[in-house]
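Structure, all two chains, one model.
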Amino acid sequence: MSIKRLSPEEALALDKFSVDEGTPHILIDKAICTTCTAKPCLVVCPARLYRLNDGQVSFEFAGCLECGTCRTVCQAKGITSWTYPRASFGVSFRTS
Amino acid sequence: MSDDKFDVIVVGAGPAGSACAYSLAKEGKSVLLLERGNTAGSKNVSGGRLYTYALELLEPGMYQRAPLQRKIVREQVMLLNKASATTIDYFNPAYGENVPNSYSVVRAELDEWFAGEVEAAGGMVACGVLVDGLIEENGKIVGIKSGEEEMRADVVVAADGVNSFMGQKAGLFPDVQAHAVGVGVKETIELPDSVISQRFGVSDDAGAARVAIGCTEGISGGAFLYTNKGSISLGIVFNPEQAGRQKRPIQEIFQDFKMHPAIQALIAGGTTIEYGAHLVPEMGYHGIQKRLYRDGMLVVGDAAQFGINTGTIIRGMDLAIVSGLAAARAILKSKSTAETGPLYMKQLEELLILANERAYKNFHNILQLPRIFGTYPNLANEVMQFLFTVDGKTPKPMFKGLLDVVKNHASFGQLAADGWKAYRNV
């Protein structure tokens, strides 16, 4: 094996997740996000779970590393709810 | 339901929570330590290095049974530009003697061991429990809520980490601010022990720690590298506020750093086995929450935003452990819950946490100088290039050559201003 550049998807594939299907622990209001010009979430999320498609911000909670960075930079308050996943769900780090 | 009541409920089985619960359980208190991860440490990410004195303070000799990685005897500072690197290497074998100065750690192992120590001391540990509320009666915190369940205690200790929703729910402080924290991203890279030892010039039980600047595209922040047993922890911490103002995803900037030839030389042949991220308190003394208690509740560790970053010393876990100990001592000494908070503040002084924080209280301002993260690392590398390049052409006179390099990067006014600002804040 050797070291290579990892895409966010490749990096997240290394981690152990238990996804709480249907119960996202972070909620965004896309209408508010559309009015936000800065959109810092697109670059600060270590898992790059915030993406821009045709001017709309989309968010995928399944690969969340639960750091909280998006919440701290969200000025427009498009993140309407941020909690930790329910017990036993989310990421489980084994070697960090 | 008085049987269900504990003396103390500790929320969060990181180093702060476990240190607190351990000290209390050892003294016979009934303690419940709650952890939202399926195992302690499974939600945690750190660089990471633990300064050993903290475990010694908790219990002399305790570090010898802890699952620590390598004792750090090589301290390295690296200044990067796009294609080259200048590294200062400080080797001090004495850091590995007697009680070693510090160890690299892997949190999944360390935290699980620590929670096990709490159990062995008589405390109760429950993992897979997310605390989502507090019980308040007559202006006093008297317990916690987890979904439909309620659990009561004389004192609740919030050791729930940097995001501390417990402290927020108790009304002690507002949510975390982007300028006050750093976001760390990290890959764990598996490599044979013999390779790590050889590359870093250490024996198999000793290791190196490295900080690096010049790899964050000018964003306030820096990289870290720790050698573990059988792996290397490699990451970068960014200021989220500044990172959010530019256009490149931090995950991508981190990949650039990982692929830098100077870093490649250290990790080549390795395999990334995990990718993690976490927030860290970054403001030092000025970032510590102003209110760390109320009747029935204390806030410890990252939740209190204890942290020190001098550029060469990055501390969090040691302060977490000592603050957990401070909370335990305060609880043991107090006759009523109203006394506990003030006694905790007194213990933070007595155990020198606040003295340590104050000693570096304005370092954060130096680490905000924008030229530190791009201009100066570039400058250092070009100075080196001038000093070491031989091409047979007529060289510039030494002094003029150096002056030209400096002038290419910063004016003397800027240098003087930065120098003055650094001097004033040290």
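The longest strand of chain A covers residues 50-53.
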